[in-house]
Amino acid sequence: MKTAPLSLFHIIKPSSLKDVKPPALFMFHGYGSNEEDLFSFAEELPSEYFIISVRAPYPLPPFGNAWYSINFDASYGKWSDDKEALSSISLILKFIDEASLAYNLDTAKLDLLGFSQGTVLCYALGLSYPEKIRNIVALSGYINEKILIEGYADKNHKHIAIYSSHGQVDQVIPIEWAQKSMGLLKSQNINYTYEEFPIGHGVSADNFYSFKRWLKERF
User: Fold this and answer.
1) Dihedral of CA 183/147/165/172: which sign?
2) 3-class DSSP state of 150
3) Which ranges constitute the DSSP H helices of 44-116?
4) How far apart are CA 142 and CA 165, in angstroms?
């Protein structure tokens, strides 16, 4: 199906629902990947979803893209460009509004699925703008408090549910970062499920079937 010419490049899988506005699942890939990566899950996820997999705005040659730069400095170690991350969050908010209109989506049922860098932004979107998001699947990522909007803790997060998972031997994002993030979710009384799997920086079959069940339970 042809995509609408919106502000971020994306690919879609239409919903099986024909006579009502469908729920949507927006997918956000990791650093150096593209919109095809997480879209490989699309055929196995609930057919009611209108699935939109989005390409990050910063090209990362030769074949990938990034939501923000990750740099290495001898003095400071690896660090993320939070200004670019905030810019990407603004782009995503605009894109979600555009896509909701263009594809006639149910704006009360907008869910997010992210991996790694994409998860970092999904957390930021859900915590900063809970009025826009229903469910979040957060794979192999963490909460970067530096990119949350001021006053996010005062917002109402009661309707949001989060599934979070991490590899026990993740060599890219330390598992301790994910575990610490669960403490923040708990402090905000956010409904979350957290699981660890004996893998590195990726998604195992067990991990996939677990978050698939979690999503189905929320229809």
Assistant:
1) negative
2) coil
3) 82-102
4) 10
Residue ranges in the chain modelled with pLDDT below 50: none
Q: What is the dihedral of CA 14, 85, 176, 206, to 10 degrees?
A: 10
Is residue 18 within 8 Å of 50, Cβ to Cβ?
no
Give pLDDT, residue 73: 58
Model pTM score: 0.96
Predicted local confidence at residue 219, as pLDDT: 80
Contact of 143 with 184, CB cutoff 8 Å: yes
Assess contact for 93 and 112: CB atoms under 8 A.
no
140 neighbors 115 (Cβ within 8 angstroms) = yes
CA-angle at 33, arms to 81 and 74, nearest 5°: 40
pLDDT at 77: 55
- Per-residue pLDDT tens for 31-77? 999 999 999 999 999 999 999 999 999 999 888 999 999 876 555 55
DSSP class of residue 7? S
The amino acid present at 130, given as its one-letter code, is P
Give the type of residue at 13.
K
Q: CA-CA distance, 31 to 64, in Å (whole number)?
A: 8
H or E segment and range at residue 111:
strand 110-115
